[in-house]
Specification:
The chain is mostly helical. It is built from seven helices and no strands.
Length: about 120
């Protein structure tokens, strides 16, 4: 992640993907003026944050443990039907694995931030 904005985008998207209640509120439109989707959160993690590009770059400077977990997470997300109805997505048993993996990546973000600060 090249910028603080990209890092914040990554954190926000991972928080969304790690929380059933946040997903329910955002994906089902339970909070006025706030809406999201599985696809938007997935794009936030890999596209908007720059993580997808960083994972293909051998010299990204990202910690190896984070890279491995992120690649596993990417594979896990590819097993979820992005076009499914939000209610069905929330009930999908694989979403428990998605939430757990997103939470693991969130725990590793301080290490990524440390690398980001050092490589500036």
């Amino acid at each position: 992640m090249k910028t603080e904005n990209q890092r914040n985008t990554l954190q926000w998207a991972l928080e969304e993907l790690s929380s059933h209640s946040l997903q329910e509120n955002l994906w089902l439109g339970k909070i006025d003026g706030q809406m999201s989707s599985f696809s938007e959160a997935k794009c936030g993690v890999f596209d908007d944050s720059g993580l997808g590009e960083a994972l293909t770059n051998q010299k990204s400077g990202l910690p190896p443990q984070f890279v491995n977990k992120a690649k596993q997470f990417q594979r896990l997300l590819s097993q979820i039907n992005s076009d499914a109805d939000p209610t069905n997505l929330l009930a999908n048993p694989k979403m428990a694995d998605v939430r757990a993996a997103a939470a693991e990546l969130l725990l590793l973000l301080p290490e990524v931030e440390e690398k980001y600060q050092t490589n500036r």
